[in-house]
Amino acid sequence: MSPAYERLAAAVARDGALIALIDTLPPRRRQPNLLFSVVRLLGGPVTDPLAFCEYLLAHWPAIAAQMRERSTQTNEAGRCAVLLPVLAALPQPLALLEVGASAGLCLYPDRYAYRYGDRTLGTGEPVLDCDLTGTAPPDRRPEVVWRAGLDLNPLDVTDPADLAWLDALIWPEHAHRRARLHAAAAIAAADPPLLVRGDLVDDLAALAARAPAGATLVVFHTSVLYYVAPERRRAFARQVQALPARWLSNDAPDVLPYDGLPACPPGGLHNVLALDGRPLAWTRPHGQGLTWFG
Ligand SMILES: C[S@@+](CC[C@H](N)C(=O)[O-])C[C@H]1O[C@@H](n2cnc3c(N)ncnc32)[C@H](O)[C@@H]1O
Hints:
single chain, 294 residues, alpha/beta, 9-stranded mixed beta sheet, 3-stranded mixed beta sheet, 9 helices, 12 strands, binds S-adenosylmethionine
């Protein structure tokens, strides 16, 4: 999805000296997207592979320090477009609890505008575009009375340094996603969510207990569980199923035990949208498309 990063990856793969430098990092930090995003954050070149490799050699100590400290925490408000058909159909109002929330931008599905083909919902920016197949667009946005996020390292969109990192995580060609990030961040900054530092297994129940009575508690996650070890995913599933909550999952197809998924549509990586453990649809990674199971 990023020709520029594909070129950089190929250039690094051919360069033994750079690979030796990258190998000095802990295995979990030897991650292409982390490297490219750190170089973007530091103002280095990311479109010319030769200039990129020279920059790496010249600035390695600063790059390595950032790569040891940071992690990939892309926060994609666009994913709300694939959550919306389910959220809008649940009994209202909703209390939203997102695990792996990053800066919490997916906690505002009621505040964004949507365009499903020629159907629009809401006004203002950002407008989240999504191609829906096999289901009708939702006819309302949910009513959200409480929004809370849990993350190992919550980011704060009112902090310019955190916002700069979220911006750096977006691939060079994706200007539309960069504009969306800043529009969504303005919405979150005007009414910040409750963001709690913690683990999605160990700290879920305590945060869920803070949800108000009289609302449907929805525990949800998007593009999170592939960061979590398999036995911890199973522990998380047990935790969430023990809560008086609905469980909305939008994650990679192999991170939860789904039986008999239909064939994945063409077009690369997809997540599976599931409610209470029942798979419902394939979704594109940034919320740009959803294919409901027939
Ligand atoms: C790729 S980001 C996705 C953020 C957001 N859900 C979205 O879709 O835009 C994954 C997030 O999960 C968080 N995370 C990973 N493991 C976690 C854990 N065990 N407990 C809580 N958060 C975790 C990371 O810190 C990161 O912010």
